[in-house]
Amino acid sequence: MVVETVNVLSSRVTHNLPRQEIHRHLGNIFSLRGFRIPQKNTYRRALELWVATPPVRDFVDALSVAQMERLKIRASLASIRTSTASRRLGAWRLPNLYEQQTSPV
Q1: pLDDT in tens, 60-79
Q2: How many other CB atoms sit within 10 Å of the CB of residue 96?
Q3: pLDDT of 80-105, one tens digit each?
Q4: Is the separation of the CB atoms in 94 and 65 below 8 Å?
Q5: Whole-number Å distance between alpha carbons of 89 and 22
Q6: What are the angstrom distances between the C-alpha of 10 and each of 16, 20, 31, 72?
Q7: Which of 15, 62, 91, 101 reaches 20 to 30 Å from 21, CA-CA?
Q8: CA–CA separation, 63 vs 96, rounded Å?
Q9: Is 89 exposed, middle or buried (0-12, 13-18, 19+ CB in 10 A)?
């Protein structure tokens, strides 16, 4: 639901709202006491990444990085180079990426 809402509001064909405005509106909805959605904070973080990193075209890419942060998934440099999200966000978005090694999944 959140992904589709962001896509419709940001689409040049439909509403063409600026990212900051979408972030503000969805933030207001997320703040409502009765609004419940699984991993609400992950969506908030994804919106922050999407707004703060204009080269990221798709909200889904920012959401993927936010989910990786939430799950504390650290990817190797080789897998980061092949990831669409990381190419758009930049490897600097994942803390200690170059220093930490991961075990195979």
Answers
A1: 989 988 998 898 887 644 45
A2: 7
A3: 545 555 555 554 444 443 333 344 44
A4: yes
A5: 19
A6: 5, 10, 21, 29
A7: 91
A8: 19
A9: buried
- Residue 3 token pair: 């992904």
Cα(93)–Cα(49) distance, rounded to whole angstroms?
Answer: 9
- Structure tokens, 37: 């959605």
Q: What is the rounded CA–CA span in Å between residue 10 and residue 41?
A: 21
User: In b/e form, how buried is each residue of 16-30, taking b as 16+ CB within 10 angstroms?
Assistant: ebebeebbeebeeee
Structure tokens at 24: 């503000």
Which pTM was predicted? Answer: 0.68
Q: How far apart are CA 102 and CA 82, in angstroms?
A: 16
Q: Is 55 in contact with 88 (CB distance < 8 Å)?
A: yes
Tokens 């075209």 identify what position? 57
Domain residue extents for the chain: 2-93
